[in-house]
Amino acid sequence: MSVHRAPARSAVGKPRMEALSDGLYAIALTLLVLELKLPPLPVDASDAAIRGALVALLPKGLAWMLSFWVIALFWVRQQRLYRYLAALDPALVRLELLGLAIVSLLPFSTALMGEYGDRVTPAAIYAGHLAALALATLLRTSHFLRHPALQTLEISIGAVRRMRLHTGLFAACALAALGLAFLMPGWNMLALLPTLATRMMPGPRRA
What we know:
This protein is mostly helical. It has one domain. It contains seven helices and no strands. α1 packs parallel to α4 and α6 runs antiparallel to α7. The radius of gyration is 20 Å and the shape is elongated. It starts with 13 loop residues before the first helix and ends in a 27-residue tail after the last helix.
């Protein structure tokens, strides 16, 4: 049975925040693919030259694939949380804007990783960026779960544990990737593989 509580007031309504989030996520996903372009080739370029250019583009393709997955994953989980969100309070608005600011920079760090991912600084910047996004999401989830007045439905203990587990897992993997960037740049992103084993939409359930 649904339990309705008076939501805390906020300066920004839930529909407007959803619209802003959807637009920014869409733009970020679109900007990612702009880095996937071949270098200028002569009009009479041979098949071998084209294949060589495509092979050289592979690191950027892998960076695009990873960043697309990350952005899509965070967007889907945001949508799942919003299904159980009655309204935003000022603190949650700030956390949402913080997360969106981090997402908006992801095309930049993705381009840096795709171009120079085998070097320490770009690998550390990219992993640090993902860690910042994961920690911002962890703060948002924790705030939401600590304030029942923001929730439209009663959430089971098991669902709460799953929400914390998935947000915590990505944060731990991103921090591990950040540490490994100083030891094995490029390969450090393998630390994110455990996140692929999680369900993409582990939403809360009614109690």
